[in-house]
Amino acid sequence: MTAQLMKGNVAIAEAAVRAGLQAYFGYPITPQTELLEHLAMRMVELDRVFVQAESEVAAINMVYGAACAGVRTMTSSSSPGVSLMQEGFSYIAASEIPCVIVDMMRGGPGLGNIQPSQGDYFQVTRSAGHGDYRPIVLGPASVQEAIDLTILAFDLADKYRHLVFVVGDGLIGQMMEPAVMPEMRPIRPHPDWAVDGAVGRPKRIITSLNLTTEGCEQANKRIQARLQIIRENEQRSAEYDTEDARILIIGYGTAGRVAQSSVKMARQMGLPVGLLRPITLWPFPEDRLRSLVDNGVEAILVVEMNAGQMIEDVRLVVGRDVPVELHGRMGGAVPLPDDIVEQVQEIAAQIGLTRASVV
Amino acid sequence: MVTLQDELVRTVVYEHPKALTEVPTHYCPGCTHGIAHRLVAEVIDELDIREHTVVVVPVGCAVFAYDYFNLDGVEAPHGRAPAMATGIKRSLRDRIVFTYQGDGDLAAIGTAEIIHAAARGENITTVFINNAIYGMTGGQMAPTTLPGQQTTSSPRGRDIRLAGNPLRITELLAQIDGTCYAVRRSLHSVREIRRAKKALMTAFRTQVNGLGFSIVELLSSCPTNWGITPPDSLKWIEDNMVPFYPLNDFKVSDSVLTMESGA
Amino acid sequence: MEEAVIFAGFGGQGVLFSGQLLAHAAMAEGKYVTWIPSYGPEMRGGTANCTVVVSDEPIGSPLVSRYSVAVVFNNPSMLKYRSLVKPGGLLVVNTSIVEAVAERDDITVLSIPATSSASDLGEVKLANMIMCGAMLAARPVVSVDTLRSTLTAKLPGGKRHLLEVNLRAVEEGIALARGQFMPA
After folding, report:
1. Distance from CA of A22 to the nearest CA of B (A)
2. What are C72-118's pLDDT values in tens digits?
3. Domain tally, chain A
4. Beta bridge partners of residue C4, listed in sequence order
């Protein structure tokens, strides 16, 4: 397999095809449109399903239908479109069926702009709709990781019969990088719960309606039990220079990637700085963070492209054990390595770390 | 020698359709949903497509229709049945997929979905129950509520200056190229019920033959929320709804005519 | 070695393609590379730029505050990026269009009349290849040989007949640069 120079959006789309995507439904919105356009060509070429829906609301409900029918299915959008899809997310979660959603986040609130943002962290990691559930959320930081996590998203969706988000932003979506595309996988058979015609078997029903209190609470408990298993087994993160880190930067996706440069710069200054880059935003990699804090991290800087959303999950893990600060940019602004380093230096001074004391 | 009694035993004149379960419905006394269910089930039996059919049920009084049809089924978010049906049909091209929707579901919150399903010429069938009211939520004004008709949200009667005029949705869908068959029938008399079944048969056959989007609107009663007796409600359909919602074929495409003439 | 190169100009001047060509060439040399366009509601005629980071090591931030090389095709880009070139860096200026001067004495400045030279070659759109050639003559982010072979491999199908003249434009850029700057 040789590397090709690929745009993030196109890479995700092609990875989905290779993962055995059978039905895609979407609506154009910047900055994910290349994804839809790639599938408009590829899915038809492969005699698979591509529909440009009349709205994001329709698109997610088409996904809902296709998922019920037992095929691998996905949609993609960007923040305002994802807001519109919340209805469908909730029904899909309640119906306990798999699907993949790509959210290339953009600056908000409102129509905002089309620049890179992480303003949807709350929207996607909390419930992404009404009721009690949390989707699995994966946050790639490179084109290669976008490919790998898209494939993983389909597998996790099937494994847990749950909705899985792949979240990025215009930077991940528009960036070109060398990456390797995996081989085409065979189409998987319909699962044994699919509503695909009751040929020689009793009929099957997929519904999210649960009118009795007892029945609805039982369904909720079943979902929560499954989420607990996910929480225990699927936390993923990447790390750089954390072995002896006393200041820990935490950032995911684009912010995490930018912060990687800051770690390098800070290390050149002699500061013991490391990076924890969550790959699963839900489940948040709380176990790994806990162990880093228990093993010498004295201060944390959370880097996000929002007003501070993931920082709440960080604080839930570390409590008041160590100070937690935010480097947050909003409205489509991307943090720059130098600015992050500046704040790292301030934190170093506050906790009594000087260049002399560590060298 | 065959006795009269033997003859009576042997001649089945009525049976439970295979496409209906034995579950008693929750519909109110005098409601015509039960008739509509039975007609659809008979058509599915007669076409011998029960094992190949998937029903998409709405939010509204028919929300439990999946319990009554002996078919694979899904329950759609309010108004989204045509979108879900699109997802299912596109994924299972050899299956028969139909939506069963009320007037609030189809003609209000789900207007975009039904119009665009028709516009794409989705090869699905829609059974549209029009009883001029929101039944399940307790009798509020629907897009199909007649001018002057009293409901809990139009207590002095529908004032068209405030609420606009009712929507004749089947006429509207008939304008769309992707629609191959769009007709209105009624369930207020035996004669009309028989005509309704014929229309449903045609609609499902258009799908079997891959001709495009088909819809059969059925004028139905809601004695509970109309506040009148079941017999009076059938008369109310005839006297008030039929004049406003004519029982016509609004679109029968050439392909459907060819199919019918070849039958 | 990590080089951060920005190409900036008007939409339609081949700015994004120049960056992609460099990115492909860097990949062909086995280097790490990222290419990021500016993107906005403007489809044509607006400003366009792209940043290419080329490195021997995995790349952290694909966005930078300061560049080792800026290749500016129009005056607004000159005004915006001339101060963002790192000391010791390179600024390649399309002097056919750019009026402003660099106002820097701590960087190498190449004045390349790319648009008029491209017209002389018979195709104004070749200005970007002239600028690329000039840039590589002064700062071999990738080798000129790799650029040539990449151009040969990556020129879009509909433009194959323009390969020869594109390669000539690269040579022209190199010649124009050598007239002003001799690499050590």
Report:
1. 8
2. 999 999 999 999 999 999 999 999 999 999 999 999 999 999 999 99
3. 2
4. C53
Residues B87, A88: C-beta atoms closer than 8 Å: no
- Dump pLDDT digits (tens) for C1-11: 899 999 999 98
Q: Are residues A73 and A24 in contact, defined by beta-carbon separation less than 8 angstroms?
A: yes
User: Which domain CATH number covers A272?
Assistant: 3.40.50.920
**pTM for this entry:** 0.94
The single-letter code of the amino acid at B72 is: D
Contact A236, A280 (CB under 8 A): yes
Which CATH class name applies to C2-178? alpha beta
- Pick the residue of A2, A4, A5, A114 with the most C CBs within 10 A to test the interface with C by mutation: A5
Beta strand C2-10 with C47-55: parallel, antiparallel or unpaired? antiparallel
Q: What is the pLDDT of residues A101-114, one digit of tens each?
A: 999 999 999 999 99
- Identify whether residues A78 and A115 lie together within a single domain: yes
Give the right CATH number for B25-262 from 3.30.430.20, 3.40.50.970, 3.80.10.10, 3.40.50.12280: 3.40.50.970
Instruction: Please tell me the distance from the alpha carbon of residue A70 to that of residue A73, in angstroms, as a whole number.
Output: 9
- Comparing CB atoms, the residue among B70, B80, B91 nearest residue A69 is B91
Positive or negative: CA dihedral C110, C111, C115, C117: negative
Asked whether residue A108 falls in the same domain as residue A186, the answer is yes
Question: What phi-psi label fits residue B248: left (phi over 0), alpha (psi between -120 and 50 degrees) or beta?
Answer: beta
Lowest mean pLDDT among A183-187, B6-10, C23-27, C146-150: B6-10
Give tens-digit pLDDT for B75-84. Answer: 999 999 999 9
Can you tell me the distance from the alpha carbon of A116 to that of A113, in angstroms, rounded to the nearest whole number?
Answer: 9
Q: In whole angstroms, how far apart are CA A280 and each of A89, A137, C145?
A: 18, 6, 43
